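Lecture 7 notes: from sequence to structure.

We start with a single chain of 811 residues. Read the sequence below before looking at the structure.
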Amino acid sequence: MDLENLKNACSAGGSQGSTGVPGSGPGGGLYAFDGPAAAVLDHRGAVVRWTGAAEDLTGFRAEEVCGRLVRELVADLPDDLCDAEIPASGRVRLWHQCGDTIDVTFRTTEVGCSGSEEVLVLAAPTHHVAGHEHGAALLRALSAQNRITIAVYDTDLTTVQTNATPNTLDGRPVQPGARLSDMLCAEDAEGLEAVLRRVLETGAPVVRRNQQVSWRHDPARQHDLSLSAFRLEDARGRPTGVAALYLDNADQMRARRNLDLAREVAERVGGSLDVVRTAQDLADVLAPAFGDLAAVDLAHSVFDGDEPSKRLGGGDMGNAALAPAGAVWPAGIKRGESIPPLPEHPLLRSFHHGEPVVFALDDFVAMVKDPQLVVYLVPKDAHSVMAAPLHARGHTLGAISAWRCGRSDPFTEDEADLMKQIASRGALAIDNARRYTREHRAAVALQQRLLPPATTDTPAAETAGIYLPAGGGADISGDWYDAIALPSLRVALVAGDVVGHGMPASATMGRLRAAIQTLADLELEPDELLSRLADLVQRLAAEAPPGDRDIVGGTCLYAVYDSVTRRCAMASAGHPPPVLVRPDGTAEAVGISPGPPLALSGMPYETTVIDVEPGSVLALYTDGLVERGDRDVGQGLPRLAEALAAHCRPGRALDETGRALLADLADQAPRDDVALLLARTRAVPAADTAHWEIPADPAAVSKAREWISRQLTIWGLDDLLFATELIVSELVTNAIRYGRPPMDLRLIRHHVLVCEVTDSSSTQPRLRRALTTDEGGRGLFLVSQLGGRWGCRHGQNGKTIWSEQVIQEYP
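Now the structure, written as tokens:
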């Protein structure tokens, strides 16, 4: 260390505190110090001159030390050095006037001309000298870092000193006297100067402040800097300027943006089970955060939920998503359109192996080779593109591409890893949506196959049914409706709701619907039918896996409308009551006593019978129509009755009424399935029915034939007279022989001729094959051969055996 450096070190050490720098010795005393201590020694080593700084350092005044040997001021001086010459530099302990010692570092030099016998000694506390050396080393190290720019500004924020080189900041050397506005855009310079001025005025430092700036010579590109600044002060604490450290923060900000982008992909992509919506979410995340434009192309089969081909090529994919929404894309990239084929290229082989590819515009043009195709595919002002395959579960579903345009930075190979991660996560989300689409399509197909025709037209009623899946079609469930034509011009109306969603619920619904159709053919009373249906549900629950037994169940409403008696009998297994809309437009819920849901076997159900006027509308529905998040059945049922009264008009088609009703009541994406069945009742005119009481006398058989003959002649059905007389003879004979009075005979004329014989016995008739020697047993066989079909139904007071014959020319 030369003399000037030592002076600077001592001066720097003294300036660190405005009231002096502490010196410490073994005794721990504190001593004021404000600059280097100096003394002049003669050839004997005696003190000739003693400065005020030396007096501040040691506490001895000049008159106390002048003329004394300097070694008397040195503590613990080795004996062998007592007579030695004073060394050029070193470190010793000096006595302080109070008796303590001071650890100092010194340097000596001759005073005056060469050969002078006087020596100048400069000394400073050792810890100040060491701190200065460490600080200087640190400053040299910082100045050598090409990514750290150090600048010192005066109180006018003019550059005093900087290590900026042509490779830092804006690529141009920074000269002393320059201002930030000479290098940065005006707005950025004003912002930075405001920060530095606040540091200068308040003394509060700024640490790692992220700042985006643009150079004057390239205002379109922004650079990320991290600014740290602190105020410079003189020995008395007065501000002398600001020191600023600028760090190139590009890598850190890029890493942070990449993490934010990866997190946003994880949060936003995959929330939908729709393929196109998922692809759009992926494109929206990438643009403009990763590229100025982003597109997602998928194999055509993926849109339908099917697996893509083993190797995708040109023309096999169609565009699924573009971002941002307002961007102008070239003619060859249109949403929903097929992507034209591209020629083979070595880089594309990496793409087929699951690796992203990066093209500069010139490379892309060279690969395509066709200038018209380039104009057809490349967005305006684009300079680079990155494409990555969407590969998941062994299938390449499509590709995602990002373009950078204008003055944005080109894609780098380092960014390919991030693109690969994003594409991998996006591919899994799209494949989940694809697989769900396939399952959903299968469930919809199954549901459509299991549901009855949307409309039916029978002599008893015309019906229209509508099914609305949960989530606007996203979640198929087990709600269903049915209209079953029954003998004697009756119709069974059904609405049911199975627990759960998806294929299992649809399968359970199909089994229950088949069971109800079978039980309906037995012509059971509604309460008896539901009891048997509940037994079936119990068996289905027992067959289910242990974890699924609690979700096997449901509710059901079963109603039978008789167009002759104009009465409707119904029973409910935990299902909401139907709503009856009368011809005068009034509507109300039918008061029924619901029994337990179908999962609870062994509990009784109750049949309710009501009178229904012709032209009335019976509405059967599932709870998804009347239950919402803000209302329960008790609140939704009056609203349903009010809507039915408004929409059910005599001249309006039922299917149109049902659609209007759902549009009025159902959510856009209901959380539960909705099934609705509307039935407009009809009645058989009194002139088309005839009734005769059968006396308990074998002679009644001949009287019944006479009555039949007269009635069919009145109706103009002479062509059915012979067959009808035989049928009635056999039925009346069986009633008299095996049944109990009272007994009735009823004829109903419509598109068929119905013959019914009712008696008070519950004995079930059975069709059997009579042997050659048997004298009886052929009656029901004759009935089955002469009529179109026959059957038996049981009521509370007996049974009814019926037979139907088709009327060839019914008006």
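The longest strand covers residues 218-233. Keep this in mind for problem set 3.
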